[in-house]
Amino acid sequence: MFLFYLLIFPFDFSILSFDFSIFYFFTTTDLNQIKQITVETNSLPKGSHKIFEQINKYNSDLKKYKNILEKMNGDYYSEVLKIKKTKKKYIQNFIKNSFISYN
User: Where are the transmembrane segments (predicted)?
Assistant: First the structure.
């Protein structure tokens, strides 16, 4: 609302106090872009703000699932490595024992 008031009454110095380090004077292209954004925002259907809330919720859920998958992935690879090591030891022992029994 303050930005809207600033755009409508930019030279009312008795009501607004300007700090020129923060505010700058808008050019006509800036004003047109702000008006376009306002029109696009106001043209959204009712309840569209829920979409933005859902996007934030989706992103937080995505981070949670990503963390869970990373943990599961680490557990999976550790299990796979254990299985590979046991298979390798089994094969090595089998080959070793088979050569010993034939000799």
Answer: 6-26
Residue whose entry in the numeric block shows the structure tokens 């934030």? 56
Give the Cα separation of 86 and 8 in Å (integer).
Answer: 76
Q: Tokens 């609302």 label which residue?
A: 1
Q: Which residues contact 26 (CB under 8 A, 6 or more apart)?
A: 7, 10, 34
In the block, tokens 């809207």 appear at 4
In this structure, are residues 7 and 1 in contact, taking their beta carbons and an 8 Å threshold?
no
Residue with tokens 């106090």, as numbered in its chain: 17
List the chain domain ranges: 1-43, 48-103
Condensed to tens digits (0 to 9), the pLDDT of residues 35-92 reads 887 777 777 777 777 777 888 888 889 999 888 888 777 777 777 788 888 999 988 8
